């Protein structure tokens, strides 16, 4: 479980996160939504320990992140996987070596590495691509490699920073299906940073909407879309309409400015 209370983060005089309060339950898929510059990616990096915060509390499974030493933080980060918009694969290494990289850095035994790579490749359905280099893969396949690498250390928390923003709609759907499947199969907690409302609708259980470094709305996805708080309307723009099909609320039309 992630528990954040009264968190503030600044760069010099600039406050980028202001009084952040939220709870991510174990096994949940949680969305952090907002426009560019709202602070959502900075908050994600605070969760991963890549950024410090000036005040407040950020606990993961009861551990206060700012109290960890560098050595303790490095050990703690083994259980946190992260994927990015542009995949961050090592181009000169094949798929096998990209997935294996964290385990190699932690000096795992060769046979353990091989077993884990084969398991993960099967899990994300890229077993036939293990000896291809990233340049030979589609965007969706690259993201599957990145997901496998993020899970290689048996992570129980997966952080996704705009992970589908560079993908076409069909590939986005495929990656979202995979993330939901991993969540259900492994029980892994997933935090998704996105500006894509369709991503929120597809896989998130709970969302927080960030505006100017503050959480302006938070709650169950279905309830947020039903209540239509001003923060949500600000993201969707003026031209929007809603329809309800078997209990699922979704956006039919976004404003042209958001497409």
UniProtKB/TrEMBL annotation:
This is ATP-binding cassette domain-containing protein. GO terms for biological process: amino acid transport. GO terms for molecular function: ATP binding; ATP hydrolysis activity. The keyword Repeat does not apply. Gene3D superfamilies: P-loop containing nucleotide triphosphate hydrolases. Residues 2-237 form the ABC transporter domain. InterPro entries: AAA+_ATPase (IPR003593), ABC_transporter-like_ATP-bd (IPR003439), ABC_transporter-like_CS (IPR017871), MetN_ABC_transporter-like (IPR050086), P-loop_NTPase (IPR027417). The keyword Membrane applies. Keywords: Amino-acid transport, ATP-binding, Cell membrane, Membrane, Nucleotide-binding, Translocase, Transport. One of its GO terms (cellular component) is plasma membrane. Belongs to the ABC transporter superfamily.
């Amino acid at each position: 479980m992630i528990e954040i209370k009264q968190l503030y983060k600044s760069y010099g005089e600039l406050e980028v996160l202001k009084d952040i309060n939220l709870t991510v339950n174990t096994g949940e898929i949680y969305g952090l939504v907002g426009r560019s510059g709202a602070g959502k990616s900075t908050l994600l990096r605070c969760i991963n320990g890549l950024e410090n915060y000036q005040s407040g509390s950020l606990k993961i499974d009861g551990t206060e992140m700012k109290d960890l030493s560098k050595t303790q933080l490095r050990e703690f980060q083994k259980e946190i996987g992260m994927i990015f918009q542009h995949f961050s694969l090592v181009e000169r290494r094949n798929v096998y070596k990209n997935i294996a990289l964290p385990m190699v850095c932690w000096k795992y035994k060769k046979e353990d590495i091989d077993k884990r790579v084969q398991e993960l490749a099967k899990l994300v359905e890229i077993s036939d691509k293990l000896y291809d280099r990233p340049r030979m893969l589609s965007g969706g396949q690259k993201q599957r490699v990145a997901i496998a690498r993020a899970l290689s250390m048996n992570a129980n928390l997966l952080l996704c920073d705009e992970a589908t923003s560079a993908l076409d709609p069909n590939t986005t759907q495929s990656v979202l299906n995979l993330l939901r499947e991993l969540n259900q199969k492994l029980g892994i907690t997933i935090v998704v940073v996105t500006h894509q409302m369709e991503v929120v609708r597809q896989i998130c259980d709970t969302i927080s909407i960030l505006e100017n470094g503050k959480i302006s709305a938070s709650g169950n996805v279905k309830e947020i879309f039903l209540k239509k708080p001003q923060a949500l309307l600000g993201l969707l723009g003026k031209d929007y309409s809603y329809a309800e099909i078997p209990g699922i609320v979704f956006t039919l039309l976004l404003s042209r400015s958001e497409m």
